[in-house]
Amino acid sequence: MIYISLALTSFMLGLSGAIVPGPLMLAVFNRATRGGILSGLLLTAGHGALEVAFALAALFAAAALGWDVRNPHPAAIGAVGMAGGLVLAGFGIITARAAYTTTHQSSEESLSPPNGYAAGASDAMAGALLSVVNPHWLTWWLTVGIAFLLFAYAAAGAAGFTTVLVFHVLS
User: pLDDT band at 15, cuts 50/70/90?
Assistant: First the structure.
């Protein structure tokens, strides 16, 4: 039952970030209209690869710093979790304000693919680069992401950690 809970929570947390307009979403729309679905998938794969690398680095860093990642101190998890909750609330307020104040403007740009554009490794690299330069991505991972991953690892070991990571990336 814990794995179902971890999977659903992780998927929903990932989806909450995926649906917020930002540089990666715009790049997916832009490149997918030019290079097809493969371009969008490669951008997303680049983003996912960066998240997997960051999550593993965070786990190894916590262990290297002497944290007992299988049995973390409740105050440490609580503090990081509270910071993550505040960050999520702040992101929610920012998103609500942007939705309220943004006006939709029509674009006269053609969405037809230009000749010669093909999906490739540059799309995957762009996905990773757009993620790492986005301050929201780093803030989210340093608060919400790490807290949830450490909770999953403490609750269900490597399988819990992997469940969270896989379902987060799939969102």
Answer: confident
